[in-house]
Design a protein that fits this description.
alpha/beta; FAD/NAD(P)-binding domain; TIM Barrel; eight-stranded mixed beta sheet; six-stranded mixed beta sheet; elongated; EC 2.8.1.10; thiamine biosynthesis; Thiazole synthase
Length: 700
């Protein structure tokens, strides 16, 4: 058995897994972007499955098991590292502000083997002096605990170092390289790191490397210093946990003086992406809530402010276990419970990776829960294919003779008759002639019968997008990777909205302003396609657009990004100005198409760059796809009549009064324009020529 394991992420979860695997005999390398920026440093260190009122189920089971591991786990870490972890089985007190009766509010947990006691007002004030008179009672959870998260993280790093883990700090992972369903390396700012097996534990940054539904939730915190004048027996001795704030007193260690005693106050929960820094509003809210519970905090000097980014998923549960790649394991998305779940995560992931033993509990935390139909797509023996046919979204009805494309609040088109299909004679004449005249569209050795590509953005709702894609007859659909990451409207459920067994995904780098951004997003897009079952999809529509007003592509940045992406094995389809010299240069560096704009994105101005597009078509040895600015089917036909190989149309369809009808119109126009180009138009003359010859006519 090979034992080369690479872990991406140097927070408490990644380090805990590294230590556990090393103790079992594995050879482990760990890559850390910035050790001191990990969310582990910004936590409070509460081990509070009961106080947090985690509902019964797999998550509560996971938390209880992890809490029970803590005493022995931290003892072993302190022994290996020689450093304290600050573990303290202090119990947690959850005050309430109103009288809830003799029995109080029962905890949510059922079949709870851990005790919980309700304290009335008199009892809770005796148990913890100094509480506000507004506190009417509360719950006491004696088995909840805390750990000094910063001390724990330092102890884990030291333990990993002592055990021989190959630690690399200050290395940014830029991409996960895959081939045929396996990871073959990790591309970093310091080069490529190959390994036999890989573990992704990069917390809130995980979605920058794989298309996982993990996003940052910012939390602001602060600490106050306990004055020397406060007697030790009169200060806060219990963790106080309320729904909107928690107050965590740190126990003195042997190395601390009385002057260094501190209390942690946290934490906000802000859905603001990776927006840094503390804010007056955030800190003020925390202080007000904390003082309401424990008033004497208002007189304590503030010692420190900080913030961090919790990795959260849509259901706020972690993602643990296998991934679409056979040698990549996931350990991310722990949200508020990364510190609490570190020991059990390390054990379960080490069992899975090293012992090839998967505990049934992991099934509840699989990434597959976020993907409808994903078990068919990635099921045993059928990776990348659905086990049964998905619903066709009305495709058969769309292709029938009576195509009904009516949509809510829009102009209905009923009994829309498709040209040609009602005339059997025309069918037998048209299709063979077209096939004999034309050649198929081939991009990067992949053949497509449709020459119309469409997008997924700007639609009013997902139903219109689904109907339009079907009505267009397209085979290539472009998807903005960054919008999927941020769950922009209309992009939340693309995995389920379209049948990716019949459509080819073209991830695009829309929103990227620099070559570096575009390269990173392109790598993520390739992983997104793999998650949807297209493991051999290396296509990317390259957009580098720093100009926010006119949305014109950056030629230098586009060329730089294209050169790098081609080296990494991408099939690059670059979006460019209609610049013949740039188009030729991009072809020379290995791009598989060029995509000149007809006019600015979304403008609907039609063909404003006809002369340059004609030059590009004449000189190009790769397919030319006219992209951006087309507003009507007549303009689509005109672009194809120039000799373009294909069109990419999004806004003109998505923003039409009836998008599915416009999609059908664009399909027919694309086909008509192509046929007209192949047939060859008549010459333009300065004089009239009679349609009927004069010779042989009847004369009087």
């Amino acid at each position: 058995m090979t034992n080369d394991i690479l872990i991406i992420g140097g927070g408490v979860v990644g380090l805990a897994i590294a230590v556990e695997l090393r103790l079992r005999g594995a050879s482990v390398t760990l890559l850390c972007r910035d050790f001191h920026a990990a969310a582990s440093h910004a936590a409070a260190g509460m081990l509070a499955p009961q106080a947090e009122q985690i509902p019964p189920g797999a998550m509560l089971d996971l938390c209880w098991r992890s809490r029970s591991l803590y005493p022995e786990w931290t003892r072993k870490l302190e022994e290996i590292s020689g450093k304290p972890t600050g573990y303290w089985a202090c119990g947690i007190l959850a005050p309430v502000y109103e009288d809830v009766g003799a029995h109080g509010c029962a905890p949510l947990q059922e079949n709870n083997s851990s005790p919980a006691y309700y304290l009335d007002k008199e009892a809770i004030h005796l148990y913890q002096p100094g509480l506000s008179e507004a506190v009417e009672g509360g719950w006491w959870y004696p088995e909840d605990a805390q750990v000094d998260n910063r001390a724990l993280t330092l102890a884990l790093w030291s333990a990993a170092e002592s055990l021989g883990v190959d630690l690399h700090d200050g290395i940014a992972v830029e991409g996960i390289l895959q081939h045929q369903g396996r990871v073959i390396g990790v591309q970093t700012s310091s080069g490529n790191f190959p390994a036999d097996r890989y573990i992704l534990a990069s917390g809130a940054w995980s979605s920058e490397l794989l298309p996982l539904p993990v996003r940052p939730k910012k939390g602001q915190m602060l600490s106050v210093q306990i004055p020397d004048s406060d007697r030790a027996d009169a200060t806060l001795q219990r963790v106080l946990y309320a729904p909107d704030v928690y107050i965590v007193p740190r126990r003195e260690s042997r190395s601390e003086t009385l002057r260094e005693r501190r209390i942690i106050i946290g934490a906000t929960s802000e859905d603001v992406g990776f927006t840094p820094y503390n804010t007056p509003a955030g800190i003020q809210a925390l202080l007000q809530r904390a003082i309401r519970i424990y008033p004497q905090l208002q007189d304590y000097p503030i010692r420190e402010f900080w913030w961090g980014f919790r990795p959260t998923t849509p259901d706020e549960l972690p993602i643990l276990g296998n991934s679409p790649c056979s040698n990549l394991t996931l350990a991310t998305g722990h949200y508020r419970n990364g510190i609490l779940l570190a020991p059990i995560t390390a054990k379960l992931i080490a069992d899975l990776v090293w012992e090839q033993k998967s505990e049934p509990l992991l099934d509840s935390f699989s990434y597959l829960r976020f993907m409808r139909g994903s078990r068919e797509r990635f099921g045993a023996g059928s990776r990348g294919k659905r086990a049964e046919e998905t619903k066709r979204l009305g495709a058969e009805e769309q292709e029938s003779n009576n195509c009904q494309l009516s949509t809510k609040n829009q102009l209905p088109i009923t009994n829309y008759q498709l040209p040609i299909t009602n005339n059997s004679q025309m069918q037998t004449l048209d299709l063979p002639q077209q096939q004999s005249l034309d050649r198929p569209l081939v991009i990067a050795d992949r053949t497509f019968s449709s020459r119309l590509m469409t997008g997924t953005g700007k639609y009013r709702n997902v139903e219109e997008m689904q109907q339009s894609v079907v009505a267009s007859g397209c085979q290539i659909v472009t998807v903005a990777v960054r919008r999927v990451q941020t769950k922009a409207p209309g992009h939340e459920n693309l995995a389920e909205a379209l049948d990716w067994t019949k459509l080819w995904m073209l991830p695009n780098t829309a929103g990227c302003q620099t070559a570096e951004e575009a390269i990173r997003v392109a790598r993520l897009g390739r992983e997104m396609a793999k998650v949807l079952g297209q493991e051999d999809n290396n296509f990317v529509k390259l957009e580098v657009i720093p100009d926010p007003k006119y949305l014109l592509p950056d030629p230098i940045g586009t060329l730089q990004a294209a050169e790098q992406l081609v080296k990494e094995g991408f099939a690059v389809l670059p979006y460019i100005n209609a610049d013949p010299m740039l188009a030729k240069r991009l072809e020379e560096v290995g791009c598989v198409t060029v995509m000149p704009l007809a006019s600015p994105i979304g403008s609907g101005q039609g063909l404003k760059t006809t002369a340059n597009i004609q030059i590009i078509i004449e000189n190009s040895g790769v397919p030319v796809v006219v992209d951006a600015g087309i507003g009507t089917p007549s303009e689509a036909a005109q672009a194809m009549e120039l000799g373009a190989d294909a069109l990419l149309i999004n806004t003109a369809i998505a923003q039409a009064k009836n998008p599915p009808a416009m999609a059908r119109g664009m399909k027919l126009a694309t086909e008509a324009g192509r046929l007209a180009y192949l047939a060859g138009r008549i010459p333009i003359k300065d004089y009239a020529i009679a349609s009927s010859p004069l010779s042989g006519t009847v004369t009087s």
